[in-house]
Amino acid sequence: PGRSHQSMDDITNNLPSLQFEAALGHEETGCLPLRCRAHALNVSTCAQTAYLIAVLNEARQVIQDRKLSKQAKLLQESLSRDPTLVGVIGCGRLGRQLVQSLMTFGRCEPQDIFVSTRRPDSLQDLADHGVNVDFNNAKVAKSVHVLFIACLPSQLATVSQDIRGCINYSTLVYSLVGVTPVAKLCQLLSFKNVLKPEIELLPLEQTTHYPGNLSEDAIESCRDMAVCSLTCPLEEPAKGSLVKTGDDWVIAVVLSFLNTCTLLQLNMLEALELVNTVLLQSPDQLPVSVDDLRLPRSAGDESKYVVLFL
What we know:
The protein is an alpha/beta fold. Helix content is 45%, strand content 9%. The protein has helices spanning 2-9, 26-29, 32-75, 93-105, 124-128, 137-143, 156-163, 182-189, 218-222, 225-228, 247-263, 268-279, 290-293; strands spanning 86-89, 113-116, 132-134, 146-149, 172-175, 194-195, 199-201, 243-245. Helix 3 runs parallel beside helix 4 (93-105), helix 3 (32-75) packs parallel to helix 11 (247-263) and helix 11 packs across helix 12 (268-279). The radius of gyration is 21 Å and the shape is globular. The protein starts with a helix and ends in a 17-residue tail after the last helix.
């Protein structure tokens, strides 16, 4: 049903002369598989970042509910929210889709999102919905639990200079600046808690099987389970997969989740319970144990795989 609805919305469907490919020359047509790959990258980025923020939000809310449930019941008050505050520096096409995916799938309210962009006036629609839009990189870096850097590579040095020394020690920095390695980011920011998905590009021959509708943005594509299922880094690449996120991303997400639990004053066993119930959604099947989390550190990188309470 989802695909038929999307086909109805696409006015160029079955009208070849109006479709994107109609204006391309012979040489340009050979680059069409790259368009599929770019679409797959956008979908993966939005799906995975929304998942990360969704599980952090759920963990914070579970902890908040447990703290306040008895008092609220006695006073017959509604439980308050304890949201993950999210910052986005750089809000071009990718940054805008990131913000929209967080509001749609990441359990974020607009007021929980802080955006810094050189052109705040171009995001008036987001501001009208309640998103905090400004051009103040340092202020955003100071205000959030998770900070997404989605600027252009050419702007990274300036952004790093703006926010260096402003990031709270407990903040998770998530880089979407594709060509810059984590070691370089840590050096530019003078900050170690940086996460960046390592993307593996799969053969372009798979484009003929890619289920995504290229006329849709990443948000609409994430509603299609056939497309969204391809973004899971725990699965082997399926037919139609064009990109794959490395396994280290999963490890980093688990450890970031655990660090959030620690910062919210949970002990080790309480944090493990949340890993199994919130992150893995399987409290009784294959539970994660303490031994599973005692990961060896790399000899050349003492900051890798650090859990605050282990």
